[in-house]
Amino acid sequence: MQKMNHLEKLNILYLEDEDIIRNNVSTMLQYLFNEVYATSCVSDAISCFETKEVHIILSDISMPGKNGLDFIEHLRSKRVNIPVILLTAHTDTDFLLKATKLKLVDYLTKPVNFVDLKNALLKAGEEYFENNSLIINFPNHITYDFNKKLLYENNITKDITAKELQLLEFLYENKNRVVSKEEIQNAIWEDSFYATESAFKSLLNKLRNKIGKQSIKNISGIGYQLIINE
């Protein structure tokens, strides 16, 4: 099973028409995912799915007008293969039968148990990564496969140490901002005794040599940011 922090690389679309439930569950999701797109109706969910990068869908079934089943049926009709978890207060046989035909990761009854929901989300993340490799592209035909933990150059594996991988993944998880040297040191070295200036510079330079010097930008006096080819 994928580790919990792998969910932090994914975005989730959450469809729920009840404001209080949507706000409470969204707060929990924000601790797990990179982005949480919370919508209250099917039309907004479809619009969000078409304009945002969505990796997992969590949807209530019952709502005014078109319901969650209609939304998932719409996606499946367009051959969209994406992990889906449905939430419902219904135990009606017709609902259950219809839902089972939509290739769901899980079907949870409300009120939702957060432990069950977290386990279902982990399972959805596992399914996503099984079907969609997360690949980072760098210049000079260098790529990193998050699933396999392998670095490639022209499709040939390159040697990379555990500490270098740790630094690469930390920079990727924070790719949208500049991270300070202190943040990096705290994330990479458990014991501050080993987080020396020379150890930091050595690790940074070794990783730069493997993914390209221009791939880690140094913002003078502030910190570092990973630059990738989208």
Give the class-level CATH name of the largest domain: Alpha Beta
Helix tally equals 8
**CATH homologous superfamily heading of the largest domain:** Response regulator
Note the gap between the termini. 27 Å
Strand runs, count: 11
Q: C-alpha Rg, in Å?
A: 21 Å
Just name the CATH architecture of the largest domain. 3-Layer(aba) Sandwich
Low-confidence blocks of residues: none
Helix- and strand-based class?
A: alpha/beta
Explain briefly what this protein structure is.
The chain is of the alpha/beta class and 230 residues long.
Overview of the molecule:
The chain has 230 residues and is of the alpha/beta class. It folds into two domains: 4-131, Rossmann fold; 135-226, Arc Repressor Mutant, subunit A, CATH 1.10.10. Helices cover 40% and strands 20% of the residues. It has helices at 19-30, 42-51, 68-77, 93-100, 114-131, 162-173, 181-188, 197-211; strands at residues 11-15, 35-39, 56-60, 84-88, 106-109, 135-138, 142-145, 150-153, 156-158, 216-219, 223-226. The protein has a five-stranded parallel β-sheet, with helices on both faces. A four-stranded antiparallel β-sheet has the order 6-7-8-9, with no helix packed on it. Strands 10-11 form a two-stranded antiparallel ribbon. Strand 8 (150-153) and strand 9 (156-158) form a beta hairpin. Helix 6 crosses helix 8 (197-211). The radius of gyration is 21 Å and the shape is elongated. The chain starts with 10 loop residues before the first strand and ends with a strand. The relative contact order is 0.10. The mean pLDDT is 87.
